[in-house]
Specification:
The chain has one domain. With about 150 residues, it is mostly helical. It is about 75% helix and about 0% strand. The protein is built from six helices and no strands.
C-alpha cells in the first residue's frame, strides 16, 4: 500500500490510515514504556519524546504494513531486553542507597541474573516474531525447498 509522495522528503512513501494509526499509537505506547523504564535515571520528559519520535520514524519508513509490524516487534523486544538493566541501573549509579553495601553484589545475584535471562528470552522471542513477520515468504520458500 505504499505510494510515492514528493511532499514528504523524509519518507519515500506513505501508508494507509490503519498502518499510520498503528504506527502512531505504538510509538506513543513504546515511548511511555521507555519513559517509565528509565524514570529512575532520567526525567520522563527527556525520554518520552526522543523514543516516541525515533520509533515512529523508524517504523513508518518500512515499505509495507508487514514491515511496520515487524519493526514494532523489534522495538518492543529491545525495550523488554533493557527492562532488567534499566531497573537495576539506579542501584549501580547510587551507591549510597540505604541497605545496599555493595551495588555489584546486589545486581549480580543469581535471582537477578535469572530475571535478566528471562527478559532476554522474552525479548528474543519478540524479535523472532518480528523477523518471521518481515521474512515470512522467504522462510516458507526455504522450508518448502527442504522437502
Amino acid at each position: 500500500m505504499a505510494t510515492s509522495d514528493s511532499r514528504l522528503p523524509l519518507f519515500d512513501h506513505t501508508h494507509d490510515i490503519g498502518t499510520t494509526a498503528i504506527t502512531g499509537i505504538a510509538s506513543v505506547l513504546l515511548g511511555w514504556y521507555a519513559a517509565w523504564l528509565f524514570a529512575g535515571i532520567l526525567p520522563r520528559l527527556l525520554v518520552f519524546p526522543p523514543v516516541a519520535v525515533l520509533v515512529g520514524v523508524g517504523v513508518y519508513r518500512q515499505p509495507n504494513a508487514r514491515g511496520v509490524v515487524a519493526s514494532l516487534f523489534y522495538a518492543l523486544g529491545t525495550l523488554v531486553m533493557l527492562t532488567p538493566v534499566a531497573i537495576e541501573l539506579p542501584v549501580l549509579l547510587a551507591a549510597d542507597m540505604p541497605g545496599v553495601t555493595s551495588p555489584w553484589a546486589r545486581v549480580l545475584t543469581m535471582t537477578n541474573l535469572k530475571i535478566f535471562l528471562g527478559f532476554a528470552l522474552i525479548g528474543a522471542i519478540l524479535g523472532a516474531i518480528g523477523y518471521y513477520m518481515k521474512n515470512a515468504e522467504a522462510i516458507k520458500s526455504r522450508l518448502s525447498n527442504l522437502r
